[in-house]
Specification:
This protein has 165 residues and is mainly α. Helices cover 84% and strands 0% of the residues.
Length: 165
Amino acid sequence: MGKLTTLALRGVIAVLLAGSVLVQGVMVPLLAADLDDLDPDMAHVRTPVLVIVVLGVVTVQAVLVCVWRLVTMVRRDTVFSHAAFRYVHGVIGAMVAASALVFALGVVLAPGEAVAPGVVLLLGGVSLAVLGVALIVLVLRLLLAKAVARDIEAARMRAELAEVI
């Protein structure tokens, strides 16, 4: 990965992290204030919605930090090692958690007439899409495992060849 690409990716990740902190610090309190004005029939969804939003932002932050660490490993040429799996597992776990949170949001909003059934169905589709991305990352993890195994085998063969020579 080129230096410019790494720098650009880190810039994007930094902006996204700053934006997520802004969401947690400013937007969530504003959302909480807006949810205070709900009908008394819907007041029970206030806390679950706020918790889901905060945890959803945390999952995004976890993915961004893990990707930052993986980019660092790529720049240092150490990505084909067992240490990379920790961060890939972090991405997969955060994506699965995000999928569960989106599904939970649909479950929280489903009862009653406040939210249209189409919105709840859309949240189910988004949950499935996020889970699909987690599965794609899992497949990429399997490819990383094969690459690590081949890198280790190549190093072993180079060492054997060096002994022969």
